[in-house]
Amino acid sequence: MGQLTSLLYLSLGYARLTAIPETILQLVNLQELNLSYNQTTYLPNSPAQFSKLQRLDLSHNKITSLPNWLARLDKLESLQLEVSSLTSLPGFLSLLTNLTNLNLRDNGIVSLPKSLAHLTKLQFLDLTGNYIPGRTPLRAEAWRVESFSLSSVDLDLQLIPAHGQTGPFGRA
Questions:
Q1: Which residues partner with 9 through β-bridges?
Q2: For 101, which of 26, 58, 79, 93 is 20 to 30 Å away at the CA?
Q3: Which residues of 140-171 are buried (b: 16+ CB within 10 A; e: fewer)?
């Protein structure tokens, strides 16, 4: 697979993979990677070379944590992690500044990092089916989210306007 360096799109959904082949991480021109509906429990820790990756679908796997190399995917716009086995999110997700779509539906997530509010381009956030107790503060930048899906989520969302900004109902 390492010889396919000009490959732009790769779909290995439903491939019954129990591990992600490390050679995939070397596909430097890849823009979209679909690894959904496999039986993968972890992602390789080897640094990925995905400098152009825009869409990553890891949904319907059994992934319990995310590797640090995800933080370097600065062109990533869509991250699909629904129906996985995540219980928490790493703070480095805030480094994915081009992220517009984040699907975390039906995981076991029990808390959100405050840094999630730094995803200022986020337009879609799905937290349906997670249990996030307590108050979760998000700064005003999160108000740019056009679509929240929070069905079946026990969440007390507290929107905190940034200094000098107004909230959706006037000045805070």
A1: 32
A2: 26
A3: bbbbebeebeeeebebeeebbbeeeeeeeeee
Q: How many CA atoms lie within 13 A of 47 on its CB side?
A: 4
Cα–Cα distance measured from residue 62 to residue 84, given in angstroms and rounded to the nearest whole number? 5
Which three-class secondary structure state does DSSP give residue 11?
A: strand
pLDDT digits (tens, 9 = 90+) for 120-160: 899 999 999 988 876 565 544 444 556 666 665 555 555 55
Cα–Cα dist 64/37, whole Å: 15
What CATH class is the domain 9-171? Answer: alpha beta
Q: pLDDT by residue (tens digit) across 112-131?
A: 888 888 898 999 999 999 88
d(CA 33, CA 150): 26
Domain boundaries, the chain: 9-171
**Beta bridge partners of residue 139, listed in sequence order:** 160
